[in-house]
Specification:
Elements lengths: L11 E5 L6 H8 L8 E5 L1 H6 L1 H10 L4 E4 L5 H13 L4 E6 L1 H14 L2 E6 L11 E7 L2 E6 L5 E5 H6 L2 H12 L1 H15 L5 H15 L9 H21 L8 H12 L7 H15 L5 H9 L13 H11 L17 H11 L3
Parallel strand pairs: 1-8, 2-3, 2-4, 4-5, 5-8
Antiparallel strand pairs: 6-7
Helix pairs in contact: 4-5, 7-10, 7-12, 9-10, 11-12, 11-14, 12-13, 14-15
The structure holds zinc ion.
Length: 353
């Protein structure tokens, strides 16, 4: 196998004002063979209602594409969509929505071998362009499935500016969490005597840097939306090149997985959870956490566990559980022997006085 056959890159990455109004034109200029092919638009009913005009326009532009309101982001739904696509000779799937829709549509396209065009309505995490889909598999338990990355990604900056602020903050949090993820990835390589993928590392680091050192902090501005879109896509591509989620997921993600698994009552988005987890991870790694706290707060993301309803005991328990949620993944949690006293100290430091 040669170097280049190991990974794919999207053919089109367009981040433009009103991109969805000209989606056929943009896609046609990159992938002329797609235009005129039978297309299915996968979305959710509330998004179809909210963005009725835009989605109807996209449907018209793609030859009267059927609009499919998916029920839930689970494996069976993705398979049902793939079945429909194969039986009805549909060649193109457009995913129009947030993370749930995009993961389901991406996996359906992967199974059915349809061309997948990703049209996010929010920028809540880096799964947008990643080679993974997180779907409910057995009951409500979620599982990560490997899949092909999108052929085209179209970001409409006006659409993102209108999305709820919390979703954009979640995308920022997911990007800022790369700092500790990359440290853990290097640590793991050192422990196992292997090399990390240098390019995947560099791309993920640049993704972090672009958001960390961004002068524009107005998250509704076009400049910022462009930077964040690219940062999230770069995160996805880093995972594609590395062939794993390691460039974007370390001990801070284990913290988020532990919340999801053991404290489902805590209402915190993925991006906020990994951003919050990044601070203790940074401290465990022996790095100075103050600039990370500063930048996270500068975007308006709280690093105070109390603001998410996380008590001192829960905080300590989540970190103990984080050691066990994904065994086989070496992170700083395998190295440090933190105890309740140390976790309480970190908690107190994070709580806003
Ligand atoms: Zn993430």
């Amino acid at each position: 196998m040669n170097q280049h056959s190991r990974f794919n890159l999207p053919i089109c990455l367009a981040v433009e004002e009103d991109a969805f109004c000209r989606s056929d034109e943009i896609i046609g200029s990159y992938l002329p063979e797609v235009i005129g092919q039978k297309t299915l638009i996968v979305s959710e009913q509330f998004l179809i209602n909210t963005y009725k005009c835009k989605i109807t326009e996209i449907s018209r532009d793609f030859g009267g594409a059927e609009i499919y309101p998916m029920n839930c982001a689970d494996f069976d739904e993705a398979v049902a969509i793939a079945k429909k696509v194969c039986i009805e000779d549909i060649k193109v799937i457009i995913g129009f929505g947030g993370g749930r829709v995009l993961d389901t549509a991406k996996y359906a396209a992967h199974i059915s071998k349809a061309v997948y065009i990703c049209m996010p309505t929010s920028l809540s995490n880096d799964s947008l362009a990643s080679p993974f889909a997180v779907l409910e598999a057995v009951g409500n338990a979620r599982k990560t499935f490997a899949c092909k990355i999108p052929t085209a990604i179209l970001v409409d900056t006006d659409m993102i500016a209108k999305a709820p602020k919390g979703q954009t903050l979640s995308g920022i949090g997911d990007t800022l969490s790369k700092h500790t993820a990359l440290f853990d990835w290097k640590l793991s390589a050192k422990k196992t005597g292997t090399h990390i993928e240098d390019f995947a590392y560099a791309i993920s680091r640049m993704s972090f840097d672009s958001v960390c050192h961004c002068d524009e902090k107005d998250i509704k501005s076009r400049v910022f939306i462009r930077i964040l879109s690219r940062a999230l896509v770069m995160g996805g591509l880093a995972m594609e090149i590395a062939g794993s989620s390691r460039p974007c997921s370390g001990s801070e993600h284990l913290f988020a997985h532990a919340i999801e698994e053991y404290y489902p009552e805590i209402k915190i988005s993925h991006g906020m959870a990994v951003a919050l987890g990044s601070i203790p991870s940074c401290i465990f790694q022996g790095q100075d956490a103050s600039s990370l706290i500063e930048i996270t707060n500068a975007y308006g993301i709280s690093t105070d566990p109390v603001s998410y309803g996380i008590t001192k005991d829960m905080f300590a328990d989540i970190w103990q559980k984080a050691r066990t949620v994904r065994t086989g993944r070496i992170t700083i949690l395998d190295e440090v022997k933190y105890d309740k006293v140390q976790l309480d100290e970190i908690y107190d430091r994070l709580v806003r006085k």
